[in-house]
Amino acid sequence: MGFLAKLAIHVSGSPPLDLKEAEQNRLMDALKANLQSPHRRIVVAELPDVGLVGMGDIALWSSQNIWEQATDYVHHSGVIDDIWVEPEFRSLGIFKALLRDLVAFADKRGAQELVLEYSASNKEAKTAWTRLGFVTTGVRASAFTHQLKDVLS
Length: 153
Prior knowledge:
alpha+beta, 4-stranded mixed β-sheet, 4 strands
């Protein structure tokens, strides 16, 4: 949970803060469900005499094309949700070790592609993912429902 909070703070540029108890409970329930799913994998990196220094997780998605096809082709993707390595332990190969495990999990289960998203402001992420061969294929935009309703009124 701590790594997920640090990643969210890193991406948003917010100052460090403590999670409220209700948010900790919600996040813990989500993590427990993820650990029980055969379609998800969460990995951690631990160093002797230090403890946990990184984490990563992936979810498997399957989708069938909506157009008529001669075959029942199902497309399998691995969606890398989060990877975090504590700043003082970066450049030690931990990121690649975590990613290697997630890729092996996805490949063993038939994923043809890996997908991820990162904040456009996260230049470290862009550099790391681009170096590995990830190519930006689109832009994800978001809006708050209440604001969109006001604009459409």
